[in-house]
Amino acid sequence: MEPLTEHPPTFLDILNRPLRSLRLSVTDRCNLRCQYCMPEEEYVWLPRKGILTLEEASRLVDIFAELGVTKVRLTGGEPLVRRDLSALVGMIARNPRIEDLAITTNGLLLAESAKALYDAGLHRVTVSLDTLRPDRFMALTRKDSHAKVLNGIKAAQRAGFKGLKIDSVIMRGVNDDELVDLLEFGRQIDAEVRFIEYMDVGGATHWSMEKVVSRAEMLEALTRQYGRIEPVASAGWAPADQFILPDGTVFGIVASTTTPFCRTCDRSRLTADGTWYLCLYAQRGTDLRTPLRAGASKAELISLIVSGWTKRSDRGAEERHELRFREVLVSAEGLRQDPRLEMHTRGG
Ligand code: SAM
Ligand code: SF4
Ligand code: SF4
């Protein structure tokens, strides 16, 4: 680590949003095939030699941290299929500027890795789990591994992780009858459940507006069960709106499809091959790997990132929301031509 400058600067984009949060995809490979993310039979993968080493990824994170990033979320693909992930966690956790280091995982490999991740300094875990029914899990993900996810969740809690979150993408006719069950499950295990609207991101080649269950519909269904639900006041930068049930249970809804929140988006994304995207919906990114491998100085990389962020005007989900006819974002053929457009490459 190079010595810290006293106060990290705040770089604002054109819409006055600070560069504060980085989603770091550590691999584009995944051990599930969720219907809303990887519904196709075949995928084009990022070439292996282009994948950043752990040291390269950590160097870039350090540079982002110098520029004001305090929150890093490890993602994928499935981040736990990346070998030696806890070594990367250790490198990032050593950076005192990173106040929040989290992972989003499907949980399949969590039982084996939770302790090492905790010991390496990971702060928080979010497990994606859309159903409590093993047969439905199999239909949704093409893998008979529901029990492994539940074991993974238990192992994470045993390892010492507090404030576990469960993310559930809700699709009409698929799992929209499980809102209450998922909330009850969260309550039982002391985890906050966040319902996510089905998004028309790259990779969601089976998306249609009819399959989206809106935040309003979710709240209506939950109100029928629990009575009055109140919103929780928030600092305004988190993607999930929080709500509270009459008994004090807090849950979240990420309503990117029907109520986008681009105006408060402080996030950017780095793919496993070092391409930096300013928005989940962006068509083009900035290649940071080539200059990194060509020996660019820290100042040169900083200048590249600052110049990208200060020109940022992206508001992808809002623009999608303004469309009169909303169809699949990128065709399967388009995704084959540029796999970086995939949600599983960008990390969600
Ligand atoms: N594999 C890990 C996992 O599933 O947690 C991390 C990567 S995954 C791309 C990150 C998040 O994106 C997951 O919570 C997943 O449910 C969400 N996601 C993927 N496709 C989505 C879609 N079409 N709409 C909404 N959320 C989606
Ligand atoms: Fe499912 Fe995550 Fe894999 Fe996508 S990346 S298929 S959401 S487990
Ligand atoms: Fe941020 Fe883009 Fe998502 Fe809007 S669509 S919240 S700008 S990443």
Question: Any overview of this molecule?
Answer:
The chain is α/β, with parallel strands linked by helices and 348 residues long. 32% of the residues lie in helices and 15% in strands. The chain is built from twelve helices and twelve strands. It has helices spanning 54-66, 85-93, 110-120, 134-141, 146-159, 179-189, 215-226, 289-293, 298-310, 316-322, 332-337, 343-346, and strands at 21-25, 71-75, 100-105, 124-128, 165-170, 192-197, 230-231, 241-244, 250-254, 267-270, 275-277, 286-287. Strands 7-8-9-6-5-4-3-2-1-10-11-12 form a twelve-stranded mixed beta sheet. It is globular and about 60 Å long. It binds S-adenosylmethionine and iron/sulfur cluster (2 copies). One iron/sulfur cluster binds at residues 260-262, 265, 267, 279-281, 314-317.
